[in-house]
Amino acid sequence: MIKRRKTRAVYVGNVKIGDDAPIVVQSMTDTKTHDIEATLSQIYRLSKAGCEIIRVAVPTEKDAEALPEITKNSPIPVIADIHFSPRIAFKALESGISGIRLNPGNINDKGKIKEIIEECKKRNIAIRIGVNSGSLEERLLQKYGYPSAEALAESALYWSEFFESVGFYNFKVSIKGSDVLQNIEANKIFAEKTDIPLHIGITEAGPAGRGSIKSAVGIGILLYLGIGDTIRVSLTADPEEEIETAYNILQSLGLRRKGIEIISCPTCGRIEVNLPDIVYKVEQSLKGKDLPIKVAIMGCVVNAIGEAKEADIGLACGNKSAILFKKGEPIRRVLEEDMVKELLKEIEEMEKNGE
Ligand code: SF4
């Protein structure tokens, strides 16, 4: 069981991050924010998939102008990503958003940053302080010679202290290193020194396949160390895939559960059915269902029931038929063409009976 680092609570709208809150899953839209219809439609899809906080890019005034309509209709709190421009930040702050992400190192004007903080305080808006190698202050680059993990952590601590010195505490921090190991190291250094909640993720992780693995390793190690209060998986893919991967990471570590867990064997020379096809069909049919059960789909009867005995229900496939089993006990034999249908019927029964 993972012991999570003790952090203080931060609120983004009505979503609690840190303290005893579950690790919050977030993502970012990839639509043009000024296209209100497209942005809201993506937010609804992501929210349905399990996204709990959504970030939207606000690079232009036109995007900032779209925010009131988006925040009014969004089912989840909206964070505006304002990056470089304090002018756009002020416009965004008036729009009903729940949070902003800013890299103080990019703005690098304490007077302006203080004005933004005061506005957030007044409007109860959370801030995510972003620190990455590209936004590192010159003095730290000179001190460390390059954007090392120590330099990134020191920058994050510096800005956190600055925010607290002006009486602002509703913030979390994200530190993004250029590679997985640096990322882990920088977050570890920061986590040892404060109780400020951390947003973790591997930035620019890559396309869905590689990116999910890189994220699982980087985010997974930090989570295993108890570090991380909210996560975002960044993939060059549909953001819905980010949500799925995020929950898979959390589920693998026993930190959160979503959907229905499916386990299946890797197949071997004993296989007599098209297992990938069966697993695909079951997975697609169960998409969107959220039940605390484990479904096993195994390629043969030799080891299946024994190997999958922790599953709540499953199929042990054989030649032209399969044994349907429940809690490690066979319940009946089903024909190949009925396997998927029978398994789904049984799961539906379990759902009805609250099993
Ligand atoms: S369950 Fe059967 S088919 Fe699947 S990997 Fe194990 S032995 Fe092979």
Automatic annotation (TrEMBL):
InterPro entries: Dihydropteroate_synth-like_sf, Enolase-like_C_sf, IspG_bac, IspG_bac-typ, IspG_C, IspG_TIM, NO2/SO3_Rdtase_4Fe4S_sf. It catalyses: (2E)-4-hydroxy-3-methylbut-2-enyl diphosphate + oxidized [flavodoxin] + H2O + 2 H(+) = 2-C-methyl-D-erythritol 2,4-cyclic diphosphate + reduced [flavodoxin]. Its cofactor is [4Fe-4S] cluster. Gene3D superfamilies: Dihydropteroate synthase-like, Sulfite Reductase Hemoprotein, domain 1. The keyword Iron-sulfur applies. Signal peptide: none annotated. It comes from Venenivibrio stagnispumantis. This is 4-hydroxy-3-methylbut-2-en-1-yl diphosphate synthase (flavodoxin). Its EC number is 1.17.7.3. [4Fe-4S] cluster binds at residues 265, 268, 300, 307.
